[in-house]
Amino acid sequence: MPSRKFADGEVVMGRWPGSVLYYEVQVTSYDDVTHLYTVKYKDGTELALKENDIRSQSSFKHRKSQSSSSSPSRRSSSRSRSRSPGRPPRGRRRSASQSREHKDEKKKTVQETSLALLVLVLFKPSENNTKRYNGEPESTEKNDTSCMILEQKLKPDLEVKRVLEQYSLRSRKDDKKKEEIYSEKKTFVAVKPIEKVPTKTKELEFGGRIGTFMLIFLLPATVFYLLLMCKQDDPSLLNFPPLPALESLWEGRVFGVFLLWFSLQAVFYLLPIGKVVEGLPLYNGRKLQYRINGFYAFILTAAAIGALLHFQFELHYLYDHFMQFAVSAAVFSLALSIYLYVRSLKAPEEELAPGGNSGYFIYDFFAGHELNPRIGSFDLKYFCELRPGLIGWVVINLAMLLAEMKIHNLSVPSLSMILVNSFQLLYVVDALWNEEAILTTMDITHDGFGFMLAFGDLVWVPFVYSLQAFYLVGHPTTITWPIATAITVLNCIGYYIFRSANSQKNNFRRNPADPKLANLKFIPTATGKGLLVTGWWGFVRHPNYLGDIIMALAWSLPCGFNHILPYFYVIYFICLLVHREARDEHHCKQKYGLAWERYCQRVPYRIFPYIY
Asked: What is the pLDDT of residues 349-365, one digit of tens each?
């Protein structure tokens, strides 16, 4: 094994990827497996560099002392009197004015060609955006002939411009003024992302190995405890429910119905309907394709449920066997998690998740070892994220509504049940309608697919998020129309904040040069992306979380104030989003460096304005 050359904390000179320029960096860590150094630039950017891309500072200081007095062509002690091959004859030598005119002409050519590249970069995303809205896949092919010819023609001139800017004779004061003016301008230039090699996960979340081990047992226990509490006449926290017999928790027929539901959603996912889009670039620069047809799957599911009700199928069967369905989903998610971890052991290094590659079995099993596990074109994580659990949540709510009418002999559902079903139906339909937005979330771009997401998508979402509807079946609550109106207004306010904030962010990420976004200001970063400092994202750092929490409160209010159990969702959701916000802060600080610190100064509040 080769020995390590540079130590942690040592200040060295690191080559910027894709260029011949070296900058002062600090070594932060070294990976013994990939033999890569993680270095940090002065602007906060962290990259993984090979050893031959790093040099000591002393070598650069030595070169500078040699070349301070003369150019490389004048270092020899004896100068040849003969003409060099590139030197023109005396009769054809240019005058000083001709030389200056030649330089000015060349500089003008460089500026014109750079402007052509800028126009090409700015207008190409809008063309892809048009194709995307027309149902066509986004064109991001890197072998475009016109682009290759243009880049080959402009490459020498751009190299000359880069060197001229690096060794410019302008004063530092002028450069500083130029940078300040640039940062205030509304100019956004897309920069090609730098390819990184995923390294070992060093900072463990969720309490590390011990915390994840406990969560594997605590999460299922919490679900079963909540469902048993809802079945009691007095669902107080101090009134612990009796444990049911083990044989009553399992039924083969129920497990078969769950498998049928999962398979039906998989068939809907594979249907060749809906547009195909590309996700964000992976570590190796490759982009995966995703078919956006979640809303079509919801329509087909609604048609199938309508057909079952037409043929007198008793949908409240879900209510009668609710605990058994939860156990079936938990067993299936555990088996799926084991399969995902076993297959991840053979996955290439570049396909592993940056957040689940610690080398510890329990932690990687929980967090997810592989980032995008696929069977052919079937993306397991993307499918489970929205389809079986989220659509199943709506079906469970409908089953609870029908069960309430049957148990209490009602001709129409109660007003509380109607509000809960309507609010949560709007939330699910919105998520499926804006399915493409999920491709930029942390679940897709950072977290692997392991027990955490498998259990969360298939068990926690459908069986905990439907807790209010399940509670109202056994504990009916009567509310007046004025109170119902106030709760509806509160939910609409939360939904407006949630949807407008997400739309603002997604539109800016998709096409920052869109004229419709001309009123938005942002802070440019070293990655080529911008951090919005106006609109909702200038109000708080996570306005979408604020809207989510307001909606969660509106979902619980129709259940009254007799017990705290139906408010478990809003309490849990606040804890979840605060924890996720802390994860976002950590990742963004590492990714954007000083630009993120500037953003935090401009937008001091995280979720709740003037509070947190």
From this structure: 888 888 778 888 999 99
CATH code for position 35: 2.30.30.140
Query: Count of residues for the chain?
Result: 612
User: Same domain for 463 and 514?
Assistant: no
Q: Is 311 strand, coil or helix?
A: coil
Rounded-to-integer distance, Cα 297 and Cα 435, Å: 12
Q: What is the mean pLDDT of residues 363-375?
A: 92
CA angle 304, 305, 306 (to 5 degrees): 90
As a whole number of angstroms, the longest Cα–Cα distance in the chain is: 111
Of 172 and 453, which is predicted with more confidence? 453
Domain-embedded: residue 305: yes
Are the CB atoms for 399 and 472 separated by under 8 Å?
Answer: no
Q: Which of 451, 478, 505 is the last residue of a domain?
A: 478
- In one-letter notation, the amino acid at residue 472 is L
Q: Which helix H or strand E contains 55, and what residues bound it?
A: strand 54-55
Stated as kind and residue range, the H or E segment containing 389 is: none
Distance set, CA 425 to CA 282, 393, 397, 398, 429 (Å): 33, 9, 9, 10, 6
Select from 199, 130, 147, 573 the least CA-distant residue to 358.
Answer: 199
Tally of CB atoms within 10 A around 29: 16
Name the token pair of 528. 């080529």
Confidence of residue 296 (pLDDT cuts 50, 70, 90): very high
Angstrom distance (rounded) from CA 263 to CA 276 = 22
Q: Among 287, 299, 295, 294, which Cα is nearest to 137's?
A: 287
- Assessment of whether the complete model's pTM goes beyond 0.90: no
- Of the two residues 522 and 303, the one the predictor is more confident about is 303
Residue pLDDT, tens place only, 512-539: 777 777 777 888 777 777 788 777 888 8
Tell whether 336 and 435 lie within a shared domain.
Answer: yes
Residues 489, 442 share a domain: no
| 257 or 40: which leads in pLDDT | 257
Distance from C-alpha of 503 to C-alpha of 497, rounded to nearest angstrom: 10
- Residues 94-111: tens digit of each pLDDT: 444 444 444 455 444 444
Question: Minimum mean pLDDT among 3-17, 141-155, 192-206, 222-236: which range?
Answer: 141-155
> Side-chain half-sphere of 458: how many Cα atoms within 13 Å?
30
Residues 457 and 328 in one domain: yes
Residues 321 and 425 placed together within one structural domain of the fold:
yes
C-alpha distances in Å from residue 406, one per residue of 54, 308, 467 = 73, 17, 19
Residue at 385 is within a domain: yes
Structure tokens at 310: 């037409």
Query: Are 389 and 241 within one domain?
Result: yes
Q: What residue numbers bound the domain in which 263 lies?
A: 208-478
> Which of 18, 43, 58 finishes a domain?
58
Q: How many domains does the chain have?
A: 3
Q: Chain-wide mean pLDDT for the chain? A: 77
Cα torsion angle, 360, 361, 362, 363, sign: positive
According to the model, what pLDDT value does residue 318 have? 92
In a domain, 139, yes or no: no
Same domain, 293 and 435: yes
> Does pLDDT of 117 surpass 80?
no
CB neighbours of residue 564 within 10 Å: 12
Does 529 lie in the same domain as 474?
no
Phi, psi dihedral angles at 519 (to 5 degrees): -85, -5
Q: Token match 């300040």: residue? A: 180
Domain for residue 429, yes or no?
Answer: yes
